[in-house]
Design brief:
This protein has helices at residues 29-37, 41-48, 56-66, 82-95, 103-119, and strands at residues 2-6, 10-16, 67-76, 126-133. The protein has 154 residues and is α+β, with helices and mostly antiparallel strands. 22% of the residues are buried.
Amino acid sequence: MRVTRVTDDTVELTLVAIHPDSGEPSGSAAFAMRLLADTDLERLDREAGKGAYWDPDALARYAHRVITAVSVTGRRNMPFDEEAARRRIEDELRNRGLDPADAAAWQNAFLDAWRDLWRNPDRVPSAVLEIRLADPTWLTGAPLDREWDTAAYG
């Protein structure tokens, strides 16, 4: 994800999936809090209780004190149809003259194409998440253009 806008009390994050199991982003305060907490897990543990990132109840209680609103916009390529993506890649390989009977060449070409798909932000699921904060001090870990990977859920 990447920080694409910051104001006094709001941060906008552009989320781009890097794996088909990522799922769609949630508009919940808990999901937004996990994203922000990725920048300062120690602070989350201090303020919400040790292990709050993994405790849905503790995290939800804390998130509702810190976050006033979350919106998800700019959804692209959602829901992601993994089977359709695989079929498109297989069609591309056939059009290039590759034969599935040549298992090693087919597998290598497929894996290369699959990796390329997930490296192209125009082809994978993405969305924009706007988070409005009651406690804007959480914005210190999210300066404009900062990028980080996350396994946040919720």
